[in-house]
Amino acid sequence: MALPFLPGNSPNERLGKEKFHKSQHFDYSSGVPMLVGSEKPGIGGEHLVGQEIKSKYSVYPIGSGTGLPPWVTFDKQVLCFDAYFQETVPEAQSETYRIRKCKIYFFLEDDTIQVVEPEYKNSGIPQGTLIRRHRIPLPPPNEGQFYNLFHFNINQQMKLYSRTFTVTDCDSFTRNFLTKRGVHVNNPTTVPEDPYSSLREQLKKSMQPLRPYERHDTLKQFLDHDRKVLRFYCFWDDSQSIYVDLRELILHYFLVDDTIEIREVIPPNSGRDKVNKFLRRCRLPKHVPAKVKQPGEITDRTVLNVLTSSTMGNRYILDSLKTGAVHEEFYKDCDLIIGGEVNVWGRRVILADCDDFTKHYYHSKYGIEDFTPLQYKAPPAPKPLRPVPPYNGFGSEEDSLSFCQRLLPKPPRKDFQKFMEKDRYGLDSKVLNFQAKMITADPVDRERVFIISFYLSDDTISVFERPQKNSGVLGGKFLERGRVKKPGQELFKSQLSQYFTAQDLYVGGTLCLNSINFQLLDADEYTFKYMEQHAEEFPRANMGIIISKLRSLPEEKQSEIRKFLTLSDPSNTGFIPFESIRSLLLGLDCDLSEHEVLVLGRCFSERKQTQVDVGLMLAVAQDFLKKKAFEEFPKMARAFVDQDRHKTQRLSTKEIRTICKAFHLPVPNSLLEGLLSKFADGDEIDYHAFLAGINWLEHPAPPVMPEDTLKLLIASPASKPKLIAQSLLNYSAVLKKLQV
Predict the structure, then answer these.
(1) What gap in Å lies between CA 451 and CA 449, rounded to an integer?
(2) For residue 106, which of 56, 52, 36, 178 has the smallest C-alpha distance?
(3) Rounded distance, CA 168 to CA 153, Å?
(4) Distances from the Cα of 286 to the Cα of 52, 229, 490, 503, 688, angstroms
(5) Where are the alpha helices (DSSP H) in 507-613?
(6) What is the C-alpha separation between 674 and 684, in angstroms, rounded?
(7) For residue 479, what pLDDT is reported?
(8) Does residue 198 sit in helix, strand or coil?
(9) Side-chain half-sphere exposure of 134, counting CA atoms within 13 A
(10) DSSP string for 385-412
(11) DSSP letter assigned to residue 61
């Protein structure tokens, strides 16, 4: 019994629903407003009564065995079918219907179909893409559905819009794909014969002559010799003219088609008009004909007129004996040799020389070895020397020289490549710094200390004086940066002056800057390292040259050195103080400068490393962090854990250093390197222990005094130079080098 239709008795269909939107029933198609509501769902996306919604996707493909969508699984996979359709041809006498062959492509990624008809020559009908790529609906009454994979098979008909296509065959990929999907593929069928196409083939065969013209195949010559040109340098002996002069020419022989082109070389100020070509590119005959042939007179074959009738027309046959053929000889590559003559339409051109490619070509093909050029003109007169006037003192020497070299002077060019290679880059200054003192009898000037800087980018020198208390001399800039001339040169001369270079500066050497002599006493660590790394540019820092000098010492000096080493090392440890060997080598006059002795000591010296307490290093590090209020230890711990992908609680030294640099840890670099070396176990570090050691919030260390911090930074290995006065020299290694 049905309930009465009263409030509360009828079910509410809106209970539990969340979507109440209405579909858009009006839309624009090609700029025209149209009603499209018949295909749209009702309120909330529910289907209306009796409404059939077109499926958005095909029944196939669904990625079997994989979760990828079809447009990824079947990307670039296309099924290809051979098909044809019959087209009626009305109002034509020669044909009533036409068979048109085409290709049907089914794209698996989105079930789209494309129909393409191959283009035939002189077909007279538009061909190519008949149906562009899109989803094609099924014929009525199933127009709401689309063609899918299972609608295709061989030897069946398909109606695509108004045309009926018959599928005749498919490729191997399509057959295998359909077979794997359970589709029984039919046997291929034949395409019916097109009457009009058969008629066209018969007409084409009847139009071909029984005795066709001889075919001259030049494709091989084109493929073998394309872009290959022989070049000859020649001249035209125009001695019979009024002016009696030689005309220089360049002959180009193109191997691709045996043609010749000639260009004239017109020297400057010759009084002749410059023409584009002396001879355009063409085949050059050996013998000039008495009369130039008209177009059409020269043919490869001749024909004979066997019948001339007003009713039956003309009849011709090929002349098999070639009685009317005109034979002409043209220049070939075998006719062109150095010293030979070429008849260029009555002009006598003599070949004098050729380029390297032409020589190689004639040597490989004809075996010619002699390519002696023909001397046809006098050698050019030597250019007169242009003496340079002496320097007059105005401006720089380079700038004055440019005024003498050209009418419109240009500023002197700088060595830009050297500037780019040796200019400052980051922390690499490319500046050599030396400590020097003035060589003078004045006791006040003798105590002054100078810093001489040499800039490698432009070979300039600057001098700075260190200020000293109670010296009576103001410090500061002593010499402005600039290039300095070497002493002992004439001022007013024609040649350019010589300037100081980087090789002229070394420890122990003397430098004369503007009539003031300086003694170079020492250099900084960067200068020593740069000169040792570029030993090929600095001979006094080249260890090979230093060892060769020691080997070339006389025997008595070598024996004296061995005796000194034996007495200085009674325990036979192999090490002696560096100062001892330094005094010996400088006192024996071994032709070694002080810089070379220092380089020898830096190479073979060893120093005792002072052991630093780890607790003191951690206390100093915490003191630096506390002063800078660094509290990002939890973030560093998370960074260490994220970097530790294998969860071993260990990281390499390089990774920990990188994270510390990323967080801008306010600790000196020397102290950080010392801590990493103390915590390192091989190449790995326990980052929990390292972080706990520097965490001044959770594990505070006892306070340190400023003296302890200063001593620790000074004693750090990274802050020390490579060579100190208290270092030991491994003289046993030096003796082994000398014996090799």
Answers:
(1) 7
(2) 178
(3) 9
(4) 88, 20, 69, 68, 95
(5) 525-533, 543-551, 555-568, 578-587, 594-604
(6) 15
(7) 93
(8) helix
(9) 9
(10) P-PPPPP-SSS-HHHHHHHHH-SS--PP
(11) -
Condensed to tens digits (0 to 9), the pLDDT of residues 330-386 reads 999 999 999 999 999 888 999 999 999 999 999 999 999 999 999 888 888 888 888
CA distances from 98 to 131, 198, 411 (A): 19, 11, 83
Q: Is 342 helix (H, G, I), strand (E, B) or coil?
A: strand
The three-state secondary structure class of 266 is: coil
Q: 35 - beta bridge partners? A: 26
C-alpha distance across the termini of the chain, in Å: 121
Contact yes or no for 594/508 (Cβ under 8 A)? yes
Return the pLDDT at 311. Answer: 67
713 phi and psi, to 5 degrees? -65, -35
Q: Is residue 561 packed enough to be buried (19+ CB in 10 Å), middle (13-18) or exposed (0-12)?
A: buried
The set of residues, in sequence order, having a beta carbon less than 8 Å from that of 606 and lying 6+ positions away, is 575, 727, 728, 729, 730
Cβ atoms within 10 Å, residue 625: 20
Contact 340, 351 (CB under 8 A): yes
pLDDT digits (tens, 9 = 90+) for 208-241: 665 555 667 788 999 999 999 999 999 997 777 7
84 DSSP β-pair partners: 101, 166
Q: Is the pLDDT of residue 123 over 60?
A: yes
Which of 135, 117, 137, 136 has its CA nearest to residue 127? 117
Distances (CA, A) of 183 to 71, 178, 186, 667: 22, 5, 9, 75
Where residue 459 falls (left for φ over 0; alpha for ψ -120 to 50; beta otherwise) is left
Q: For residue 610, give the DSSP letter.
A: P
The 10s digit of each residue's pLDDT in 415-458 is 899 999 999 888 788 999 999 999 999 988 888 999 999 999 99
At 456, list the tokens: 């490698």
Residue type, 36: V
Q: What does pLDDT average to over the chain?
A: 84
Alpha-carbon separation of residue 304 from 252, 295, 316, 325, 553 (angstroms): 40, 19, 5, 12, 103
Residue 123 pairs in a beta bridge with none
